[in-house]
Amino acid sequence: MITDRTLASSEDMHRHLVDELNLALRRVGMYGRLETGMWFLIRHLPFLEGRLEVWEEQRERWRQRGLWSPTGVEGAFAPHFPSEHSLGASSVYAEFARAEGWLRPDRVLDAQAYAVLRDKVRPWAEHDRSWADVTTAFGPPSIQIGGSNPRYGKTLGYVTDDLAQPMVAFHLWNGTDPGLPDWPGHEEPLLLAVRCGAGNFADSLTFTPQGRNRRPGEESWEGC
Question: Range with the lowest mean pLDDT among 16-20, 116-120, 176-180, 214-218?
Fold first, then answer.
């Protein structure tokens, strides 16, 4: 039995957890169920930073916005999207990670590009769009949640370096409509909704026609 062990420094532990969090946010499912993986990673980071209250305070903010349920953030997405709730929920955790300085974006939009995105995105999302349409219009995302395989949905998040400006998240879906046997139903994921804003969750969603048609509920929301 090995008894002589040297522990990593607190800085190395923190760096390791931040690395793991950034992988888990992007590779949803590789770390098990999203809510479980986030629970462990995000609770340990505030512990190392001596800020244990951060996690409970964040959950309370999510509750007030309609982003927290008995099944976590994923449960808040279920009334609005047909499936793949973990991809959307991961973008909410990514927003939290960004606010705490843990997120490592692949791209940061400058102020002008972000302003153009915010001004354009709501009327742009009034029409049906696909994955390629999003990246053609707005460039590579700051964070891609989900892999590169077009058979599966994904969420694309865009951020600027101003933390006061919210992430703009594009929620893309690929699946089979009721009554159709083939999967996936589309050559590439379809955009169902764009989400941005720090207010009520439902009000932050702007649905495309495809998104409205596939909503489990009957109400339609527009936000951003």
Answer: 176-180
Residue 181, amino acid = P
Model confidence pLDDT, tens digit, residues 146-180: 999 998 999 999 999 999 999 999 999 998 766 65
SS3 string, the chain, reads CCCCCCCCCHHHHHHHHHHHHHHHHHCCECCECHHHHHHHHHHHHHHHCCCCHHHHHHHHHHHHHCCCCCCCHHHHHCCCCCCCHHHHHHHHHHHHHHHCCCCCCCCCECHHHHHHHHHHHHHHCCCCCEHHHHHHHHCCCCEEECCCCCCCCEEEEECECCCCCCCEEEEEECCCCCCCCCCCCCCCCEEEEEECCCCCCHHHEEECHHHHHCCCCCCCCCCC
pTM over 0.85: yes
Tell me which amino acid residue 202 is: A
Terminal alpha carbon distance of the chain: 58
The pLDDT of residue 181 is 59
> What pLDDT band is residue 1 in, cutting at 50, 70 and 90?
low
How far is residue 121's CA from residue 80's CA, in Å, rounded to a whole number?
19
Section 96-105 average pLDDT: 97
